[in-house]
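Q: Could you write out the predicted structure for this multi-component system? I'm mainly interested in how the pieces pack against one another.
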Amino acid sequence: MESVLHTRPALKKELDRAAEVAGYLWQRGWAERNGGNLTIRITEYVDDVLRTRPALCAPQPIGIRLPNLKGCWFYCKGTGKRMRDLARDPMSAGSIIRITEDCAHYEIVADSPVMPTSELPSHLSLQDYLIGSGSNYKATLHTHPIELVAMSHAREFLDSERLTRLLWAMIPETLAFAPLGIGVVPYALPSSVELASATLEMIKRYDVVLWEKHGTVAVGPDIMEAFDQTDVLNKAAILYKTAKQFGFTPEGLTPEAVGEIRDVFHLPSERRG
Ligand code: 2HA
Ligand code: ZN
């Protein structure tokens, strides 16, 4: 059967961007095997033909009820699927789902019955929060950035404020593009509702969430921006690591220099959208 993307160029463009990001994740070594996942809200691209398409499976439980997701549609990477395959063909490595009327289940609609990401509770909890807060953000990204995950193995970096200050001090752009910093969520079982709830609380205050000894979660108006936020923070982690490899602890920008950047560029200190 023909892909639903063939007759929907705007939706295809959105998923082309997901494919581009998936390629970057693979190239950076942040997406080994089936590692990482992404979800994009695509409700705006759903026309009558797609809306009335029969489901490819029985309704599946999300694990939580998310009232703001009534009538929402998403593209999700498939569970067990590879980012590097998504980079070539998003519909072979993911699927389009819709949330059922009870806001507690989903149905797979297209192209084929690829089960969505194992981290669906986290992705959809974030989407529910974003809609509820009136945000224009539509994309959520979970990946395994090497340096940030490595840092989350050291107790001293599990303090969100401390880690954020250290990363901001590595290069001015970190503060400029991640002015809310990074929030650390203590280790919890991958895919769990507990992990999803802790992530939700953290994303209200920080740009990116770091899952201890696992990976990151970022949100954005589109998937490229969610990737950029992760990339900016991981770049700071790479600079820290590189200085350590040279044999010294980096001096870091002074708190005054960081404060000056915040003032001059009018950077927000809390989430606005
Ligand atoms: O998709 O990264 O956390 C596999 C994962 C689960
Ligand atoms: Zn993961």
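A: Regarding packing and overall arrangement: The two ends are 39 Å apart (CA to CA).
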